[in-house]
Amino acid sequence: MRQLRGQERAITGNRQTSLAFAEAYGAGTIDDSAEAALHWSRDRAREAGIRTVTTGTGAALRLLAAAVDAKAVAEIGTGTGVSGIYLLHGMRPDGVLTTVDLEPERQGFAKQAFRAAGFAGNRARFIPGRALDVLPRLADGGYDLVYCDGDLMECLEYLAESLRLLRPGGLVCFEGVFADGRTVDSAVQPAEVLRLRELLRSVRESTTLVPSLLPVGDGLLCAVKRG
Hints:
Blueprint: H1 2-13, H2 15-25, H3 32-48, H4 55-67, E1 72-76, H5 82-90, E2 96-101, H6 104-116, E3 124-128, H7 131-134, E4 143-148, H8 155-165, E5 166-175, H9 191-205, E6 209-214, E7 220-225
Helix pairs in contact: 3-6, 4-5
GO molecular function: O-methyltransferase activity; S-adenosylmethionine-dependent methyltransferase activity
InterPro entries: Cation-dep_OMT (IPR050362), SAM-dependent_MTases_sf (IPR029063), SAM_O-MeTrfase (IPR002935)
GO biological process, one term: methylation
């Protein structure tokens, strides 16, 4: 037991280095055209003042999409297409990404990025609008993975919709659950952080879900819907 504690201390002492290595590990593992499209999409996001998923988060999304052999994925928050490129790379060659965003201009950037990354136009379905207006129109049990990167105040509603949309064995993922460290900060926090804490508690306590919190990017909460 003493030896195990020593190992734990060693891991803790190198945690930042290990996390940085994990973040960088997925870089360069997709083809050159997709890498170029990712760079272009990130530049458009910076110009628009929006954050994109990190390389580590993107690699995790690609892995998860591949793990469930995803043919149908729903994405809340298109952004400029960075997360979508990773998801499409993990999906089946005939898979379709349905992506929802309030900003049609951002979706226009994502369309260009997907095309530059080598994906045919029929691989993505772009739906402009508020997620909670769009999601109820999508088919029950019709999706292998639902990725949520939208309004934090609506995360519990996204969870409820995801449970309806997912097939048994499907995955739901929430980006940004660390909230730059505020989720675990004992200081007074804004309403969206309190909402995230509710989400984390609901997913962990659910009898319908098998959860895990991945320490990539700003925190990726994942859960499998039981059969």
